[in-house]
Automatic annotation (TrEMBL):
Lineage, broadest ranks: Bacteria, Pseudomonadati, Thermodesulfobacteriota, Desulfobacteria, Desulfobacterales
Required cofactor(s): [4Fe-4S] cluster
Protein origin, superkingdom: Bacteria
Organism name: Desulforapulum autotrophicum (strain ATCC 43914 / DSM 3382 / VKM B-1955 / HRM2) (Desulfobacterium autotrophicum)
Matches recorded under PROSITE patterns: B12_BINDING (PS51332), RADICAL_SAM (PS51918)
Record-given protein name: Methyltransferase
GO molecular function: 4 iron, 4 sulfur cluster binding; cobalamin binding; metal ion binding; methyltransferase activity
Domain B12-binding residue range list: 15-191
One of the GO BP terms on file: methylation
Length: 449
């Protein structure tokens, strides 16, 4: 271990490239990494942030496409498919993000760091993580690189073996950051955090982002449900939430300081116990008359939509409503978790429409590509959602380790999911049943229109 020092170190935080068949910026920001950066700065550590997905990198020049809601396409460069995919997957494979030479130039021009943090998201994006770390080590040989995030948590052994990181840290980094920094740099500090109180966390360091066209907002951690296809309860075993006041102050901060108008809620359970959480937050937003736009890409629990919450969401400025429906097979025999019945779904849709939301604003996620799923079930769900007067949104199933459905997915998949995380890519539809082909998937997409 490094000898103890009283000099604050320089820590580089990096959001890595994506390697995939397709990728798009759906209000995506490395919120966990930027929260760690904020904790470090709060304790006098010098922080530099580099985003390999930066759509507004200075070397990109003018012309970056930005949708009115802040979303937009990443820069895309076709790259060779991994050898393991070449004979098994059609379609072009690409690196999404900035040009590698831009990244190397930025690294060369910065003061050398004492420690590097790299985050990770999808397990099947492991190739982009490895390329990112390789570039960092090329410019800064000998500087320790620590990998965290979802891939590092769900597939720790794979990340240790393949990512090139010097250390892989699974789980919540906020509780381990002091130990990690001390172990690698000798610098000691005591974070002013209470793991039980999310309000003690500093605001994420979104100010380090080049062009903040939208801001992520996380009001809760974890989820009280345990859906068999989802890893939320594994990644965040305890359901915790912030005070409505702290969330409101964060929204005001980014709007007033950076002019942000679009906010995406990253919550898996935004409306749970709405009377004490979402309702006072929505009322504060309405009373402030901020004229903002809010989006719910992680989906809302349908049972929690009431006349009050629907009305308040509309008045507060919610523009994109996504419902976690999964299927319209409401029978007791269905294999998916049953979080909602037919009456509850149609009642929620009616409430949202009565509040003022249009068909284009309301979408219901429908899972597609599940183990042993039949084409008729997906078609029926699409038609039922369209009949209700809202938009069906296909959510392609990704097999995720540590979920109840993982073992069933492995049995159903035409790939060896344990061999490489790349086979979990939902673009490959790894668990397609005998009655569903890529051709029928294309037909399903057309049916949603």
């Amino acid at each position: 271990m490094t000898e103890p020092t009283h000099n604050p170190p320089h820590v580089l935080c990096v959001n890595p490239w994506i390697h995939d068949f397709a990728a798009f910026d759906f209000w995506a920001k490395p919120l966990g990494l930027l929260t760690l950066a904020a904790i470090l700065r709060q304790n006098n550590v010098r922080v530099t942030f580099m985003d390999c997905l930066d759509r507004f990198h200075p070397m990109a020049g003018p012309g970056t496409r930005v949708f009115p809601d802040g979303r937009g396409p990443y820069r895309k460069t076709e790259i060779p498919k991994p050898d393991i995919l070449k004979e098994r997957a059609p379609g072009r494979y690409s690196r999404y993000g900035i040009d590698p030479e831009w990244f190397r130039t930025d690294l060369r021009q910065m003061d050398p760091p004492d420690l590097v943090f790299v985050t990770s998201l999808m397990t099947y994006w492991a190739g982009g993580v490895r390329e990112t770390i390789a570039a960092i080590k090329e410019i800064f040989p000998g500087i320790p690189v620590v990998l965290g995030g979802i891939y590092a948590t769900l597939l720790t052994d794979h990340a240790v073996k393949h990512s090139l990181a010097d250390e892989v840290v699974p789980g919540n980094g906020e509780n381990k950051i002091q130990e990690i920094v001390y172990r690698h740099t000798g610098f000691s500090f005591t974070p002013r955090l209470d793991p039980k109180d999310l309000d003690t966390l500093p605001l994420p360091a979104l100010d380090l982002i080049t062009n903040l066209t939208h801001a992520p907002i996380l009001t809760t951690r974890g989820c009280p449900f345990a859906c068999e296809y989802c890893a939320s309860s594994y990644l965040e075993p305890r359901f915790r939430r912030r005070s409505p006041e702290s969330v409101f102050q964060e929204i005001c901060h980014w709007h007033n300081q950076r002019g942000v108008k679009n906010f995406a809620f990253y919550d898996d359970a935004l409306l749970i116990d709405a009377r004490n959480h979402a309702v006072p937050l929505f009322k504060a937003i309405i009373e402030a008359n901020l004229n903002l736009a809010f989006h719910t890409p992680n989906a809302l629990h349908i049972r929690e939509i009431t006349e009050q919450t629907a009305t308040l969401m509309f008045k507060a400025g919610f523009k994109t409503i996504r419902l976690g429906l999964e299927t319209t097979d409401f029978s007791r025999e269905r294999r998916l978790d049953c979080k909602v019945n037919a009456h509850e779904f149609h009642h929620a849709v009616t409430l949202l429409k009565d509040a003022g939301f249009s068909r284009d604003q309301i979408g219901a996620y429908l899972l597609c590509g599940l183990p042993d799923q039949e084409i008729e079930a997906v078609e029926s769900s699409i038609l039922e959602v369209k009949k209700s007067g809202i938009t069906p949104v296909l959510a392609y199933y990704t097999p995720i380790p540590h979920t109840p459905m993982w073992e069933r997915a492995k049995k159903a998949s035409r790939f060896d999911l344990d061999l490489d995380p790349i086979f979990s890519n939902n673009a490959l539809f790894p668990c397609l049943g005998k009655t569903i082909s890529m051709k029928t998937i294309s037909q399903l997409k057309k049916l949603t229109k």
